[in-house]
Design a protein that fits this description.
The chain contains 20 helices and 29 strands. The strands form seven sheets. It has a six-stranded mixed sheet. Strands 10-17-16-15-11-12 form a six-stranded mixed sheet, with helices on both faces. Strands 21-29-28-23-24 form a five-stranded mixed sheet, with no helix packed on it. Helix 13 crosses helix 17 and helix 14 crosses helix 17. The structure holds beta-D-glucopyranose. The site of beta-D-glucopyranose has 7 residues, from loops.
Amino acid sequence: MKLQIIAAAVAIGVALNAAGETPVYLDTTKPLEERVNDALGRMTTEEKVAIIHAQSKFSSAGVPRLGIPELWCTDGPHGIRPEVFWDEWDQAGWTNDSCTAFPALTCLAATWNTEMAQLYGKSIGEEARYREKDVLLGPGVNIYRTPLNGRNFEYMGEDPYLASAMVVPYIKGVQANGVATCVKHYALNNQEQRRHTTDVDLSDRALYEIYLPAFKAAVMDGGTWSIMSSYNLYKGRHVCQNQRLLKEILRDEWGFDGVVISDWGGVHNTEQVIDGGLDLEFGSWTNGLSEGMKNAYDSYYMAYPYLKLISEGKVDTKELDKKAANVLRLIFRTAMNPEKPFGSLNSPEHLAAARQIAGEGIVLLKNEGNLLPLKLDGKKKIAVVGENAIKMMTVGGGSSSLKARREVSPLEGLKHRAGDGVEIVYARGYVGDPVAQQDGMKVQDISDNRSAEEMLAEAVAAAKDADYVVFVGGLNKAPHQDCEDADREGLGLPYGQDRLIEELAKVNKNLVVVNISGNAVAMPWIKSVPAVVQGWFIGSEAGNAIADVLAGDVNPSGKLPFTFPVKLEDVGAHARGEYPGNKDALAASKEWGDTIPEYYNEDIFVGYRWADKEKTTPLFPFGHGLSYTSFEYGKPSADKKSLTADDTITFTVNVRNTGDREGQEIVQLYVTDKKSSLPRPVKELKGFKKVKLAPGEEKQVSITIGRDALSYFDDNKHEWIAEPGKFEAIIGASSRDIKGIVPFELK
Ligand code: BGC
C-alpha cells in the first residue's frame, strides 16, 4: 500500500527528491506529526486554504501537486448515503450506491450492548470503505432533551453515561476501517426547530454533566478523528465559530487532535471562524452570492475571503497552519492510510448485523397475560393494520435518508415468518404520509384516496374475527414526524391513530401495538392494549427483526434509552426550560433569521433525572424493557464498605433466569449521593451489564465504579468534585424497577 502511495506520487513527479529519497510526508514509517509538518512545509498559502473548505457538496480538495488526495465525506449515521450531484442535493442516480440500512441509533442505544455498537461501527465502516468514503458523518450523541426533537432517532438517548458507553465502540469499529467518524452535532443541538438561530445558554454544570460527556468520551476514549460543530449558537456565538467549545473545551481540555468540520452551512463569518477553532468548512451559501449559486466554493468564508485578509496583512497564517495541519492529519489517517482494508457492501454479514442489532434493540414495553410471543401454531388469522406495516422507513428524515438495497416491511416480515398455516390479512387503517421520497427521488407511492371512515371501518372489520391484531403505526420521518429541520408538534400519534387503536381494542382483545418511532409518543389507549412493542426505525431488516420478536424467535432484550412521559408537561424542558426558545424573544421576532435565546432552566434534570425529582410516574421509565422469560435478582453486595477518591468499588448481584427460555437481562447500576453541597439527581446511571442466561441459569454480575461515578461538576471551581460522605448503589432492572440498594461511603 505504501508503495502504491509513492507510485501515485511518482506518477505526478513529486515523490522522490533529488537524492532519490522518499519525502517524509509519504513515508508511512515516519511518525504522523513529522509527515504532517513535512507536507505543510511544502504547501503554498493557496494550497493550505484550498484544503480547509469544500470543493463539492461532500468533498474537499487535496493537494494534487503533492499527490495528496481529496477527502470524501458521507452521511451517516445509519448507512452510507447515496451519491448526490457534485453541486446539488439531488441524487446522482448511480446504480451501484445502494447500501445496507442499519437500525437508527436510538435502537442501537436500546440494545445496551457495547458489542452491538462495535459490530455496527465495523459493518457501516466497511460499507463506507467500499464506497471509498473517508469520513462518516456520524454518529450523533446529542442528548434527548425533549421528545419533540425531530432528530432524536439519530442520537443515543437521554443519559450521558449510556451514550458515552455506546459511542466509543461504534467509533472504534468504524475507524478500524481507515474511515473517520465525525461525531455530531457538537454541541447543544437539542432541537431542530430554529436550529440555525437558537442561542443556547445553560449552566456549566448542565453542560459538563449532561450535554458534553458523550462527546468527551468520543474524543478521549473513542479517539474520533473528526467532530461536527453544530448549527445553533452557544452563548451568543455560532458553534462553528465558538472558541469556548471548539478550542478551550475540545482542544485544550480534551486534547482533540482531529478535524472540526462545520455542519453544512454552519459558518457565518470569516473573522470569527479564523480563530474560532473550525478546520473544515462545508455547505456554506456565502454572502454576496445568490442563494445556492453553483461553484461558489471559492467564496466560502474560509476560502477567498480568508486569503484576501492574509494577503492584505490583516491576519497572519498561524491559524491557517493549524487548520491545514489538522486536515492533513485526517487525510493521512484515512484517504492515505496504507493499512485500510477494501471494505464490503451489502454483504450477508451486514444484513445479519442489521437484523441482530435490531432484534436486540426492539423493546417489549408491555405484555399483559403473555399475549406475546404470537402463538403461530395451527390455523390462525392475523390482522395486520397500520400504514407503517408497508411504508418504507429507510427513506426520509433528512440527511440520514438512505437508498437501501433491500428493506423488508413489517407486513412482508410477518408473512414470511408466519408461513402457510397462518392467514394474514392487511388493512391500512389510516393514511399518513403515502410518499417516500428524498433528494429528488420518489421511491414509494402508496397513496390511497379512501376516506378516514372507510379505512377505519375496513380495519375494524378485519380485526373482528382475527386471532391477533398487530397494529404497526407510529411516526414516519415525514416533516414533523421524526425528521430533520422540524420538530414534532406534539407528543401524540398523528393521523387519527389513537382513535383507530381504541376501535381495534374494542373488537379484539389480542391487540399488539408496534410503535415505529425514534421518540416517545403518548399512549392514551395504553390501558386497553395488552401488548406494546417499541419498534424504532430499524432499516433493511425491519420486517424480519420485528417478526423475530413477535414470533418469539428472538427474545426481546432491549431497554429504553429515554423516558416515555405521560404528557409533555412531565418533561423538564417543557415544564421549566424555555423550549422552543425564550417566549418574549419569540413573540418579538419578526424575521426568520432572528436569533432566539433559550435557557435550559431545567438544568441537569433531564429525562429520568427530572421525573425522579418531580416524582412523576412515566408511561415507561428510562431503562425499561420486558422479556419473554423472567429474571430474579439476588441481594446485591459490595467488595468494601468505603472507598477513597483514588480507589474503586465493585458491586455484585446474582441474576437468575427463572423462566423457560433463554434471555438477556440488562443490570443497571445507579448512584445516589445522600448528602451534597449542590443539589444532585435522585440517582444517576453509572454502570450496566447485559447478561445472557439459559433457563434456570444464574450468573454473578459485577460492576466497578470509581471517583468519576461519584463526582459532580462545580461551576464555580470549574472542577469535578467527589464529595466525601454517604452514597448508595442502586441495582435496577430499570430506573424505576429497583432490585436492591447497597450503601457505601467515600472517605
Ligand atoms: C445535517 C448534518 C449532515 C449534513 C450533510 C446537515 O444538514 O445537520 O447532520 O451530516 O447536513 O448532509
